[in-house]
Amino acid sequence: MPFVQLLFEFAPPSMHASPREMPRPRGVRARPAAPAKKRTAQRPALRLVSERIDGKKVMPQPPRGIDHARPVQQRYDAIVERFLSANGLRVRCWRRSLSGLATLRIFRDGHQERTIESPYPTSPLRLAIFLHEVGHHVIGLGVFRPRCLEEFHAWRYAIDRMNELGVPTDGTVQRRFERSMQYAVAKSKRRGIRALPAEVAAFAG
Predict the structure, then answer these.
(1) What is the end-to-end Cα distance of the chain in Å, rounded?
(2) Host H or E run for residue 97
(3) Contact yes or no for 127/76 (Cβ under 8 A)
(4) Are 66 and 44 within 8 A, CB to CB?
(5) Are 77 and 67 in contact (CB under 8 A)?
(6) Per the domain annotation, does 8 fall within a domain?
(7) How many domains does one find in the chain?
(8) What's the pTM?
(9) Each residue of 76-134: pLDDT tens digit?
C-alpha cells in the first residue's frame, strides 16, 4: 500500500487532469462543448391528486405532456377540480381515446362508488366528453329510459355547463353530440324500441 501511495504522489500532473485539462496533440481541434440542457419546469401537482374518497385518490395524475402553466389549461384544470369535488366523483383513469365511461358500484352495505373515465380536458371536445360522463352521475344512471334518452340528457348537461363557463360548443363539440345521439338512437332501434322519445326523435334519420 505505501508503494501505491508513492506512485500517485509522484505522478505527473497530466495523469490527474480531467480530459478537458489534458494537453491535445498538435493539429487536433478541441471538440465544442455540448450545449447545456434546459431544465423544464416541473408540472404543478393538482390539489385533487392528494384528496381521497374512501381511501382512494380522487383522480390519477394527468397525462404527461400537458403544459399546466398555460392560462387556458389552468382553466381546464380548475373545471376538473370543481366538478369532481362538487359531485363526489372519482376518476378511474384518463383515457387516451376520445371516449368515456360512467360507472356506479353499489355494495352490499349500501355504500356507493361513483367513478368516471374520460380523456383529460385540454380542448373543448375533451372537456365536453369529461362533462358528459359527469352528467351521467348528476342526472342519475338509469333514471331515464331508454338509454338514448339518458345519453341526450347527459349531453345537454355537458353543453349547458360549457355555455355557462363560456367554452365554445360549436364545431367539433356539436358534431360529436349529433353523431353520438345518432348512434344511440340507432342502437335503440336495433334493440326493437317501439316509440322514440320526442327529445331524440330528430336523430332517427
Answers:
(1) 92
(2) none
(3) yes
(4) no
(5) no
(6) no
(7) 1
(8) 0.77
(9) 999 999 999 999 999 999 999 999 999 999 999 999 999 999 999 999 999 999 999 99
